[in-house]
């Protein structure tokens, strides 16, 4: 753990950067003249770029060395954070957030891969627990620290100062990056650089259409963007299958998703992070715009939630030892209870002032923090364990791609419902309805967690670490040529 602290700081920084966007979002409209859809697009631009580059960055780390890629990503994250802080307009900010997302995409899969290739099983368990805690605290700390910075009466404070703080974790991690053990490159396949563009552009079109649609009354070009995005993603998947069959470089080999545990885990990640991404955005808008809290007050109100999340993340090995395979199911049930309570509070306290809502949230937030950390931690281990160590970078990329794409889609969809309902219903009741949608996604998460637990032991043996997962037709072609897999 002493050698991997820069890895944990780097993991903290990547999620911190996303979270900074949430706390600054309510200020972008007045200061940059941004519409609600444009504000949502600022948040989504980071997450989409992050998601699009993750798998490619994981493969680059496997081939060229993870410490080298981690160093490049940390430098890029610091520089792009400064660019975002200096953006003169909203579309310049969108572009800078795209670059920030690309830099974070280089960092994150290297951190998971370095942890996953630790020397011992206990070291990997401790590393994953610390990664979970660091990533979760980074997500919440962005709103707490960002709110404090925005409340300072200093030149270049405000939202620009908050955005600039996202450079600090990268700088700190760079100070210790040489402590990380060098892992010899173990990839030989040329990365599919074009594949990153073929998935990134449709994903950006999809999220842009969903983000801007409600604010523009669904003018014809926003559904067209959504359709283009969906068709583009489908075309990307078909193209990857054809390239794999032909033995050409691919970004995501369809055969790599063969382990059922991996497929279930990725779908669970989509449900979990779509809900959380929407919750973070809605919380900032509700507290700062609807309830009139300052950024400092909004951030401090999350302290109990953040503390519970961090504590549960650090204690995750003990929690999973106590509850075993049922941990994620129990956590999902706990989260449903917390969301229902918060929804009822939000619905029935409308118009009663911020103090009552915040007081209730401080109590319920502990429940939410414990539940979400207990969903997130075991899920990371499930996904990472489903892929061989020789492609640990790909495993980190797959999981974090699902995470970041889902954060963006959650803001665009559930957050869009919230924004549409706020004028007629009021902020608190619109928030309650959005929480109801998140209850549905959490129930689906519970169903999948139960299915994952009930899968027969050893059913993924053919996909165990070290097993050959290439497509059967490729193996047949190689056998015919005298090539041994």
UniProtKB/TrEMBL annotation:
GO terms for molecular function: transmembrane transporter activity. It comes from the Bacteria. Keywords: Membrane, Transmembrane, Transmembrane helix. InterPro entries: MFS (IPR011701), MFS_dom (IPR020846), MFS_trans_sf (IPR036259). Pfam families: MFS_1. Its main location: membrane. Residues 3-453 form the Major facilitator superfamily (MFS) profile domain. The chain crosses the membrane at residues 39-57, 69-92, 127-150, 156-175, 218-239, 260-279, 299-316, 328-348, 391-418, 430-449. It is found in: Cell membrane. Residues 457-485 are annotated as: Disordered. The keyword Acyltransferase does not apply. It is a multi-pass membrane protein. SUPFAM superfamilies: MFS general substrate transporter (SSF103473). Signal peptide: none annotated. One of its GO terms (cellular component) is plasma membrane. The keyword Zinc does not apply. PANTHER family: ACTINORHODIN TRANSPORTER-RELATED (PTHR42718:SF39), MAJOR FACILITATOR SUPERFAMILY MULTIDRUG TRANSPORTER MFSC (PTHR42718). This is MFS transporter. It comes from Pseudonocardia cypriaca.
């Amino acid at each position: 753990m002493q050698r991997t602290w820069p890895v944990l700081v780097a993991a903290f920084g990547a999620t911190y950067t996303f979270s900074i966007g949430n706390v600054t979002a309510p200020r972008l409209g007045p200061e940059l003249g941004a519409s609600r859809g444009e504000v949502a697009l600022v948040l989504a631009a980071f997450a989409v770029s992050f998601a699009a580059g993750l798998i490619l960055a994981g493969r680059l780390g496997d081939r060229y060395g993870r410490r080298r890629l981690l160093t490049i990503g940390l430098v890029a994250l610091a520089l792009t954070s400064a660019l975002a802080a200096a953006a003169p307009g909203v579309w310049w900010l969108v572009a800078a957030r795209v670059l920030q997302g690309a830099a974070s995409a280089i960092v994150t899969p290297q951190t998971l891969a370095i942890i996953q290739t630790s020397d011992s099983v206990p070291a990997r368990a401790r590393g994953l627990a610390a990664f979970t805690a660091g990533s979760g605290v980074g997500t919440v700390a962005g709103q707490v620290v960002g709110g404090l910075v925005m409340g300072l009466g200093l030149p270049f404070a405000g939202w620009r100062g908050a955005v600039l703080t996202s450079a600090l974790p990268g700088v700190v991690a760079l100070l210790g990056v040489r402590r990380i053990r060098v892992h010899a490159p173990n990839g030989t396949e040329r990365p599919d650089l074009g594949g990153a563009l073929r998935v990134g552009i449709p994903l950006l079109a999809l999220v842009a259409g969903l983000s801007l649609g409600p604010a523009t009354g669904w003018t014809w070009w926003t559904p067209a963007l959504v359709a283009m995005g969906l068709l583009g993603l489908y075309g990307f998947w078909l193209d990857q299958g054809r390239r794999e069959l032909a033995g050409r470089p691919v970004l995501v080999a369809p055969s790599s998703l063969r382990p059922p545990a991996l497929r279930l885990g990725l779908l669970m990640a989509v449900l979990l992070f779509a809900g959380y991404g929407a919750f973070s955005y809605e919380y900032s808008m509700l507290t700062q715009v609807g309830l009139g809290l300052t950024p400092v007050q909004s951030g401090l109100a999350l302290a109990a939630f953040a503390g519970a999340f961090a504590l549960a993340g650090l204690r995750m090995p003990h929690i999973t030892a106590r509850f075993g395979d049922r941990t994620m199911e129990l956590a999902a049930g706990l989260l449903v209870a917390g969301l229902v309570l918060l929804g009822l509070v939000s619905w029935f306290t409308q118009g009663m002032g911020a103090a009552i809502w915040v007081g209730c949230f401080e109590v319920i937030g502990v429940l939410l923090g414990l539940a979400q950390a207990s969903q997130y931690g075991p899920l990371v281990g499930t996904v990472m364990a489903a892929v061989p160590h020789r492609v640990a970078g790909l495993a980190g990329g797959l999981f974090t791609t699902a995470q970041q794409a889902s954060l963006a889609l959650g803001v665009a969809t559930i957050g869009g419902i919230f924004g549409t309902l706020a004028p007629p219903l009021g902020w608190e009741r619109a928030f309650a309805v959005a929480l109801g949608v998140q209850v549905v996604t959490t129930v689906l998460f519970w169903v999948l967690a139960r299915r994952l637990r009930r899968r027969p032991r050893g059913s993924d043996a053919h996909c165990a670490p070290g097993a050959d997962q290439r497509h059967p037709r490729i193996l047949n072609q190689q056998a015919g040529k005298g090539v041994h897999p």
